[in-house]
User: What shape does this take?
Amino acid sequence: MEKFYYYFRRYYKVVFRGLLFAASVAIVVILFPREGKFKYEFQKGKPWMHETLIAPFDFPIYKTDKQIQTEKDSILKFFNPYFVYDSSTLEIEKEKFRVFYYKKIDEYVSKKYSVNNNDSRKQSFLTNAQNFEKFSINILTEVYSKGIIEISEINENYKEDSRLTLIKEKIAEDYSYLDFYTQKSAYEYVISSTDKYLHDNNVKIRHPEFYKSVNLYEFIVPNILYDSKTSENIKETLLKNISTSKGMVQAGERIISKGDVIDNPVYRMLESLKHDFEIKLGSSHHYQIILFGQVIFVFLCFLVLFLFLLNFRKDILQHSLKTSFILMVVLLFVFIASITLRISDKSIYIVPFALVPIIIKTFYDSRLALFIHIITVLLVGFFAPNGYEFVFLNFVAGIVAIFSLTNLYRRGKLFLSSVLVVITLSLAYFGMAITQEGNIANIQWQNFIYFAFNGALVLSSYPLIYVFEKLFGFLSDVRLMELSDTNQKLLRELAEKAPGTFQHSMQVANLAEEAIIKVGGNPLLARTGALYHDIGKLNNPIYFIENQRTGFNPHDMHEFDESADIIINHVREGVEIARKHKLPKQLIDFIKTHHGTGKVQYFYRSYIKKFPNKDVDISKFSYPGPKPMSKETAVLMMADSIEAASRSLTDYTDVTIDNLVESIISTQINDGQFDNADITFKDITAIKAIFKNKIANIYHARIKYPEKN
Assistant: This one.
C-alpha cells in the first residue's frame, strides 16, 4: 500500500493528464451520432472510383431539401385559409340597432313635439320612423346574409382571384374572396343605400336631419371570422403529408459502375443509400462494433495530439491547466458542431472553426494553432455531412486566419482576418460547387449567407480571449498592449517618482524587443516585461544611480553589505508591488529573473577591497533568483545589464561598446544564468550584434541631444 502511495505521489500529475485525455476521448465519442459510416466517398460531377455499386436493400430516393421546400412553398402559396360563419352576429347587431334607434326617437320626439298624442305631425314622423326602421333592418339583413369578412394579416394581401374555405353549419365550401363584403365595402353599401332611400322618399319624409344622424354603418361588424386553429392544423397536416422521397431503388439494382460520372439523379440515389445505410447500421446489432470503431478513431486523434505536444510542446504537457485549456477548446467546438448539426445540416457552416487557431495562436504559436485546428476539423469531419468538403473548407479558412492575424491587438487586423475567412470559404465552396454541379444555377447560394455569419462570429474572439485569460490565467497580446501603455497608473507613478529608472526601462524595452524580433519569441511580452522589471525601485528611487541628479549618494551613509541589501531588495519589493497591482504572473517572472542569481558586483568588490582578510558571506551580495526561464526573460537580463553599464561609458567607440557587450554577456553565460532558458549560441550571437548596434545608436543620440538624456 505504501508503495502505491509513493508511486501515486510521484506520478499523480502524469495520471491526471492521462485522465484528461481519456475523458476527452469519452466526451467526443458520446457526442458522435449513433450511426454507421458509409464506406464510400463520392462527389457530384466526379467519376465513381469504386467497384460497381449494387443496391444492398430496398431504399427510397429522398428529395433534396430544396425540393421539399419548394413543395412547401407551393402548398402555402395556394393554401385557402379557413373562416367560420357567425350566424349570431346579425341578431346581435339588429337588437343593438333597435335599442339605439328607439332611444334616439324618444329623445327627438320629446325635443320637437308636445306630449299630445293626437299631434298629426308627430304621428306622421313616427310612421316615417317605423318605415326607416324596416328599411334599416332589411339592409342589415341583406349585408350580413352575404357576409362581411374579417380583414387580418392572413387575407389582407389577397388578390382578386384568391380563394378561401368557409365553414357554415359544419359544412366547408370554397368561395372567392370577392363573394363577400369587406367591412369597408359594407360601410359604403349601407351609406349609399341610405342616401338613395332618403332621396327617393324626400317628399314623404320630414326632418331628414334626424335620419342622417342615424349612422347605420356603426352596426357593421364582420360575421365571417378567420379560424386560425383550423387553418394552422390543416396547413400543418398538409406540410406533414409531403413525401420526402420520389421513387424507389430495389435490392439488387445497379446504382453506378466504376468510372461513371456522378450526375444529379445518381447523386441523389447515393445520398439516399448513404442515409439509410448509416441509420440501419447504427440501429442494428452492429452498434457495439460501430461504437468501438468510433472510440479507436477518436483515440487516435487525441493520441496524435498527445505525441505532438510531447515532442514539440512538452511545456504544455507539464502543466495541467495548459493541457486542460487545449483539450477544452477542442471539446467546445466539437460540442457546438454536434448541437448545430441536430438543428440543420447546413448550420455547420455557421460555426466559426477559424476561432480555434485564432484562440490558440493568441496564447501559443502558429504551429500549435494549426495542429489543434486540424485535429478539431478532423473530429467534426467524421460525422459532418460531406466530410471532405467540410474538412477542406475549414482547413483553408483556418490557415488564412493564422497567417492574416499577425497582431490580434490591432482591431483592424481582426476585421481583415474575418473578411478573409469569409472570402476563403466562399471561394473554396464556389470552386467545389461548380465542379460538382456543372453550372452556376444549381449552386446553393444561401450557403454564402452562412459564411457571412461565420465571418461575423470570428469577431467574437476578443470576448472569448478575455474569458480564457480569466479562467486559465493566460496573457494575450491584447492584455499586453494595455499593460505596455505608459499611461498605466503604475508606469505613470514610476515616471514621476523615478524618472531615471523609467527612462532606463524604456531603453531596455527597446533593446529587448529588437532582439526578440530577431531570434524569435514574443516581442510584445519582452517589451512589457522590460517596462515593469524595475518597479521595485519605486520604494527607494534615490538609492539607484539613474535617479541621482544632485550629486548626493545615500549609499555613502551605509556599509557595503547594507547597500547591497537595499539594491537586492528592489526585486522582492517589485514582486510585492506587482502582486498588489494584480500584474500577470508572466510579468512578475521578468521582475524575479532580471538579475537571476547574479551579484551586486560594485558593493561586493568594494567590500572585499575594504575587508581583504574577512570571510565574505556571498549570499548577502547575491540576488535571490530564479534564473531566466524563457528566451524573453534571458534577453531582458542581457539588455538590462548592458543598458545600465553603458551609461558609465566615457568612450563610445565601436571597440569599447563591443567589449562591454561581450564582457557582460560572457559573464552571465559563465555564471550559468541562461541554463534554464530556451536560448541557443546562435541566438546569443545575433543578440550581441543587435545590442552593439543599438547601444552605439543610443550613444550617438546622447552626444547629439545631451539635454534629452
